[in-house]
Specification:
It is a single chain. The protein is mainly alpha-helical and 538 residues long. It has two domains: 1-235, no CATH class; 253-538, no CATH class. The chain has helices at residues 3-25, 27-57, 60-73, 77-114, 123-134, 140-152, 157-184, 189-227, 237-275, 282-297, 301-320, 324-351, 353-360, 365-374, 377-393, 398-422, 424-449, 455-485, 491-515, 518-523, 526-533. The longest helix has 39 residues, at 189-227. It starts with a helix and ends in a 5-residue tail after the last helix.
Length: 538
């Protein structure tokens, strides 16, 4: 791999990590400003918005980058520019259409969300905040195409910087806007959340500003490349977009999975809670489920996203070359490393659910209970993303649609009955069952078409489970001791508890991994290089 590509991948990964970290920690002040009703309203608007964004843009940057890179490699630069010019028009049109659809469907979505009954918030409140966030759809698809264009030229800086700027601008507008509306202007909660959701549009403008600046700086170089175009390939726009759609479609379905599961909760949760006499608590409980705990649970899934983006090309290469040994090695490595990193993370999050929830939001029994059972579901989120990426790598992406639809059907069928039985936790159980069915289908497809044996993963997996159990017991003992002197109900003391217990658990886990050489089997010589950089090994 070239140093330029390595550098570009590092920059893009760093930008994504910074963006996600910012997206996690802003919820602490945001929750303090707007409370549980505010975060519920915010979640009501963001779930349908995320679905529309996933349909409009998921896979577009990657598909455009792959297409442009392919033709740049044979010095047919005009083909990529042709896609870029027509794509800007098409993505602008799709953005405007998406905006109009969501804007005018907002009352319908709000009615479905609350079942026509006003709880702590009204149908009109939900309609207002959905319409406020829908404006972002006008510019996000347009922006995603520009990012893909730069990535196709192996320039990852514009995407990374624009992601971080978008997130910073959005968060500042969210926090400042909500605070000013509630505390300075003494406005309503609905007005404050409308400003907060409209921040997605403002963040998009900030990102576009960065991208336009990069375009201005690099246009002379891009035009010079165009002058060197060979001009031997004449490809129609129809053929161009057929290739783009074929590549982007699987990413659309993977990107839709989580928002669609959340949307099922959104349109069934209030009805189910009302049926068991808990309608008055539905909005607060939904906030815990789809905003507060979900923001924490999704953290380990970021790793899976990174895996799925980098996995496809190498798996495709090994599969097309019929290099069975290399394919099996890559799949072994992926499944094991993912389990090695996510299992202890979710186990620790489940164990420390009470102080973690207190640290980010407030001390709340329902938040602790839901987070404790929701945390392990992050493993399922991660494995769905990765198995779907592997299926694309072996050219069996059509089964991604089957597995996703089957998982959604399970979720939709069981959600209301399980909520009636277990209240908020029932929605988590339904999500876990839906994802489990989808993953089993994916694994069956991988075993059948890639002829992949799971024996090594199962053996190593048992070892990872054993180490995680040891870590859990050690951290649990430390947790019991620390809570004698410190209270998980206090945010500052909760922070100390989390730091001490996490350090103890991680120490035990990595000690066992080093003693048994498991960490070397998974990461190889990279571990020694990392230790030398940290001066932990000579």
């Amino acid at each position: 791999m070239s140093s330029k590509l390595l550098k570009g991948t590092f920059i893009l990964t760093l930008g994504t990590i910074i963006s996600k970290v910012l997206g996690l920690f802003y919820v602490i002040p945001f929750y303090q400003i707007v409370g549980k009703e505010g975060t519920a309203l915010y979640s009501f608007s963001y779930t349908p918005y995320t679905i529309f964004i996933s349909v409009a843009t998921a896979g577009v940057p990657l598909a455009v980058a792959k297409f442009i890179s392919k033709y740049n490699a044979i010095e047919e630069y005009a083909v990529g520019r042709k896609l870029f010019k027509s794509g800007l028009v098409i993505m602008t049109a799709s953005g405007v259409i998406s905006f109009l659809i969501l804007f005018f469907l907002a009352p319908v979505v709000a009615e479905m969300t609350l079942g026509g009954k006003d709880a702590e918030v009204s149908v009109e409140d939900v309609t207002t905040v959905i319409r406020a966030v829908s404006f972002a759809l006008i510019i996000i698809p347009f922006m995603s195409l520009i990012r893909g264009f730069f990535q196709g030229h192996q320039s990852m800086g514009p995407t990374a910087v624009s992601q971080v700027v978008e997130q910073i601008v959005r968060i500042l507008f969210v926090l400042a806007g909500a605070y000013i509306v509630l505390n300075v202007m003494e406005g309503s909660l609905t007005a404050a959340i409308s400003v907060a959701t409209f921040a997605a549009f403002i963040g998009g403008l900030g990102s576009l500003g960065v991208l336009f600046w990069y375009w201005y700086k690099r246009k002379p170089h891009l035009d010079k490349m165009l002058e060197e175009d060979k001009g031997t390939v004449d490809i129609s726009l129809k053929e161009i977009y057929k290739e783009i759609i074929l590549y982007a479609a699987p990413f659309v379905f993977v990107g839709l999975a989580n928002p669609l599961f959340q949307f099922i909760d959104q349109i069934t949760f209030a009805k189910a809670m009302d049926a068991i006499g808990e309608g008055a608590n539905a909005v607060a409980a939904f906030s815990v489920l789809n905003f507060e705990t979900h923001k924490l649970v999704i953290i380990p899934v970021s790793l899976a996203t990174a895996f799925s983006l980098t996995l496809v090309p190498s798996v495709t290469k090994a599969f097309m070359e019929e290099d069975r040994a290399d394919l099996n090695r890559q799949l072994n490595q992926t499944f094991q490393v993912l389990l090695f990193l996510t299992l202890p993370a979710v186990a620790g999050l489940s164990l420390l659910a009470e102080p973690v929830f207190t640290l980010f939001y407030e001390h709340k029994d329902l938040g602790t209970e839901v987070l404790r059972i929701y945390a392990p579901v992050a493993i399922l989120f991660a494995y769905f993303s990765v198995t779907a990426a592997i299926m694309q790598g072996i050219n069996e992406q059509r089964f991604t649609i089957l597995s996703l639809l089957t998982g959604l059907l399970v979720k939709l069928s069981l959600n209301i009955p399980l909520i009636k039985l277990f209240e908020t936790q029932g929605a988590v159980f339904a999500t876990a069952l839906g994802y489990t069915v989808a993953i089993l289908i994916n694994l069956f497809v991988i075993k059948t078409y890639a002829k992949y044996p799971f024996r090594l993963v199962l053996r190593r997996g048992m070892l990872i489970v054993l180490f995680t159990a040891c870590m859990y017991i050690a951290a649990g003992v430390v947790y019991k001791i620390t809570t004698v002197f410190l209270s998980p109900a206090s945010p500052f003391q909760a922070l100390i508890i989390v730091i001490i217990c996490a350090a103890a658990g991680a120490g035990v886990y990595f000690y066992l991994s080093f003693r048994t050489k498991l960490i070397y089997l998974l990461f190889g010589s990279r571990i020694d290089r990392m230790l030398k950089k940290l001066r932990l090994k000579s």
